[in-house]
């Protein structure tokens, strides 16, 4: 059996096209352009790539993009002052502080200094709480994009067994909340989980978000399951080149699963598409 490959790249392009239409309509009716501000502190290479892509795709969607690049040794107080300025700026509808932040910065403090109304990442404690309570919330972009791919494949997820591998605040926990809201039976598995392979084998839906290259092998996957691979890991090949791989062994998964997201071209493009969608939503909310 060969699994279907879920084309996140094409799906994300569709979302971006709809966002661009929404932005054009917003400009026509409100007379201003929605804006997204991104704050990048330091030189983390992966973050630089993400921020560059965000900038380009924000402009392509017809929105304003405000980039703030600060040196790695920027004092925390300066970062907080910048966030305050962006909170007060009516041209800025969404604020994203790129993670990870340097060690001398209290990331929780910075994340929670972003106005909850402009928190397009959905990381602010009030959005986290609202999501957990089943209230309207800004939802973190990677789990939201993953959910869209799952709904597109299955329609209703009700009653399905979902296993989320990883318990991060950015992906694992909000992913579990979203799947629960869609009436899945949800298990969060992590580094201390006993017999993690058997737990994963019970999954109709397996979401891997652990940041460990190719950890999920074919034998971990229930035949016919849908596998969402959130991992983006750069590994060195025997020839000394680098290659992007997910948290799932793609070739083995293709032999067992019903559907698999590739890396790259699966969840990755969905994250930025959802960020743009969240920014447009935030712009709509700002005008009532
Ligand atoms: N770093 C890795 N993923 C993300 C994300 O979704 N948002 C932010 N702000 N930083 C990240």
Automatic annotation (TrEMBL):
Residues 140-285 form the Tetrahydrofolate dehydrogenase/cyclohydrolase NAD(P)-binding domain. The keyword Oxidoreductase applies. Residues 6-121 form the Tetrahydrofolate dehydrogenase/cyclohydrolase catalytic domain. The keyword Amino-acid biosynthesis applies. Its EC number is 1.5.1.5, 3.5.4.9. Pathway: One-carbon metabolism; tetrahydrofolate interconversion. One of its GO terms (molecular function) is methylenetetrahydrofolate dehydrogenase (NADP+) activity. InterPro entries: Aminoacid_DH-like_N_sf (IPR046346), NAD(P)-bd_dom_sf (IPR036291), THF_DH/CycHdrlase (IPR000672), THF_DH/CycHdrlase_cat_dom (IPR020630), THF_DH/CycHdrlase_CS (IPR020867), THF_DH/CycHdrlase_NAD-bd_dom (IPR020631). NADP(+) binds at residues 166-168, 232. Keywords: Amino-acid biosynthesis, Histidine biosynthesis, Hydrolase, Methionine biosynthesis, Multifunctional enzyme, NADP, One-carbon metabolism, Oxidoreductase, Purine biosynthesis. GO terms for cellular component: cytosol. It catalyses: (6R)-5,10-methylene-5,6,7,8-tetrahydrofolate + NADP(+) = (6R)-5,10-methenyltetrahydrofolate + NADPH; (6R)-5,10-methenyltetrahydrofolate + H2O = (6R)-10-formyltetrahydrofolate + H(+). GO terms for biological process: L-histidine biosynthetic process; methionine biosynthetic process; purine nucleotide biosynthetic process; tetrahydrofolate interconversion. Pfam families: THF_DHG_CYH, THF_DHG_CYH_C. Catalyzes the oxidation of 5,10-methylenetetrahydrofolate to 5,10-methenyltetrahydrofolate and then the hydrolysis of 5,10-methenyltetrahydrofolate to 10-formyltetrahydrofolate. Belongs to the tetrahydrofolate dehydrogenase/cyclohydrolase family. Homodimer. This is Bifunctional protein FolD. It comes from Rubrimonas cliftonensis.
């Amino acid at each position: 059996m060969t699994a279907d490959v879920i084309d996140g790249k094409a799906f994300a392009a569709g979302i971006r096209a709809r966002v661009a239409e929404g932005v054009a309509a917003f400009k026509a009716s409100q007379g201003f352009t929605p804006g997204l501000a991104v704050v990048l502190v330091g030189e983390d290479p992966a973050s630089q790539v993400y921020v560059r892509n965000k900038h380009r795709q924000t402009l392509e969607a017809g929105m304003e993009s405000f980039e703030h690049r600060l040196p790695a040794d920027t004092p925390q107080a300066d970062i907080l002052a910048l966030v305050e300025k962006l909170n007060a700026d009516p041209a800025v509808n969404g604020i994203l502080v790129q993670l990870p932040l340097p060690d001398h910065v209290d990331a929780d403090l910075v994340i929670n200094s972003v106005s909850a109304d402009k928190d397009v990442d959905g990381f602010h404690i009030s959005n986290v709480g609202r999501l957990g309570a089943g209230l309207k919330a800004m939802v973190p972009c990677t789990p939201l994009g993953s959910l869209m791919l799952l709904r597109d494949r299955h329609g209703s997820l009700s009653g399905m067994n979902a296993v989320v591998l990883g318990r991060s605040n950015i992906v694992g926990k909000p992913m579990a909340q979203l799947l629960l809201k869609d009436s899945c039976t949800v298990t969060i598995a992590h580094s201390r989980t006993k017999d993690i392979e058997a737990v994963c084998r019970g999954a109709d839906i397996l979401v891997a978000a652990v940041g460990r290259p190719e950890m999920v092998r074919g034998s971990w996957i229930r035949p016919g399951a849908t596998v969402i691979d959130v991992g983006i890991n750069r590994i060195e090949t025997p020839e000394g080149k680098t290659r992007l791989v997910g948290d799932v062994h793609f070739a083995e998964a293709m032999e067992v699963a019903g559907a698999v997201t590739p890396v790259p071209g699966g969840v990755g493009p969905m994250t930025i598409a959802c960020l743009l969608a969240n920014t447009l939503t935030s712009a709509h909310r700002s005008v009532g």
